[in-house]
Amino acid sequence: MNTILLVDDDDYVLDGLLRHIPWQDIGVRIIGTAGDGAEGLRKYRELKPDIVITDIYMPEMDGFQLTEAIHAIDESVPIVILSGYDDFANARKAMSSGIQHFLLKPPSLAEIEFVVREVVQQLNESRERDTLLSSYFRQQAIVRRTMREAFARDLLTTRYRPEELPGQRIAFMGLPDNAVVQALTLSLVRSNSSSARDEREWQLLRFGTGNIVRELLETRLESQPGLSALALEYTDTDFVVVFLGDMEESSYPLPFLTKLSEELVGHILQYMKLSVLAGLGLAKNGYHRLIDSYLESLQAVEKAEMNEWNRVYAYSESAVPEPERNVPLEAVRNLHDAIFQKRWQQVEGQWKRLAGDLACGGFPLPVLTGICAGIMSAMWTASSLADSSKLGSEEEGLEAHLLRLSRCGSSSMLLERMDDAMSRMLERSQEELHGKKSHALVDRVIREFIEKGYDQEITLEQIAASLHVNRNYLSQLFKKVTGEPFVTYFNKYRIQKAKELIRTGKYMVYEISEMVGFRNSTYFSQVFKSITGYSPSEFER
Questions:
Q1: Which SUPFAM superfamilies does this one have (predicted)?
Q2: Distance between CA 282 and CA 162 in Å, rounded?
Q3: Measured in whole angstroms, how far is the alpha carbon of residue 523 from the centre of its chain?
Q4: Three-state secondary-structure class, residue 407
Q5: Residue 250 confidence (pLDDT)
């Protein structure tokens, strides 16, 4: 519903207008009133009414001044003048001020209703025209954008001669007649983990990536007259950005576009957490050469795939083929042999040397990934990590480690991650080996000295001397493996044997004491009670 602001210094007039005019029936609502022109201007700024009805002669600011001030803000606001003076000068001044309705006081209800209805009708018609016009322009913009994208897709796949290009269609789309064209291909790296995701999640990632690309292009190209860009979602993983420069307006800004391409890659990696292979073709004169720039961008993407990701590779016509590099296969084979023979110290040294050779060799990223994946699998198989039952609940399997390697976007990142994994696996393998040796030493103490010599007086110092190991080391190792100090474990074993002898009923307590290695029967009884809770005689009963 349209709104009206009433401005008059006569309270009687305002009260009459409020009381006697059926504003609701006319289809309007009184949004406020003011007692003079200055207050009316303040109320207009505050309330933003659709229509203003004002007196002419008021203190501080008259109706004409108020009209001029309002139209300085919005010249389309309709103003209805109320005047108590029947003179031609006021009417003529009102018309010259852009006021189309002039009423003499006191106006009849029919006059006011007629004028307000006419103003409302004009407002509604104007709004309908604006809405239709705005819709037309929006639809035209959508049609033009759709036509531009279809035109660009056609140029990427079809080779035209200059005379075959649709000139009128190009003009209707708002594209320059003579254009410099250049293609940037952004290929999203969809890792194995992404393939396993729900397809809807991947499509959301693509949608977000498209928004980032388009918003950044729109923002950055505002400052580049004669330069525009089309962002095409070309395949499930590829976006193609087509840069268009008007040759007649400005020079083509190659450094700017290279920097913009790198910024696009950086934004995708930062906000969508997706790695990108980016290739930039050469700038070409004429729409018919866009296909050449696009094919060049694909060649640059292949170079990106073989080297470092998340940077822009520009196609170069003068690029010299890289010399063939030989993978150090002998070093790789020797490392595999050392792994399967579990010579862990040699494995560590050989890996360090091989990693240094790989870092300096300039090998393609897929080749390095294959070498590292093979070494990782060999380490996993040769070590106890291959037994999933020995993995903790938070430890990852081989598949997760290989997937992490496949996500590396550069040789340096790959070798750094592989070096970290090798260090952890070697440490784990050495700990396992050390642990097995430790268990074997403690098992020997139990088997050869405790179980066979429990009836003799034997100390840990004597055992350590016999095994040629440090006494303190053996003591700590024994407690770590068994959970008990040597003396406690030894005495428990002796008391267990004593209980077996007591149950036979053939021996006296002092005899059993000697039979299990205690030369003092009183001390034997004390130890027996501390372990079982009973004295030997009580246990017998």
A1: CheY-like, Homeodomain-like
A2: 19
A3: 72
A4: coil
A5: 59
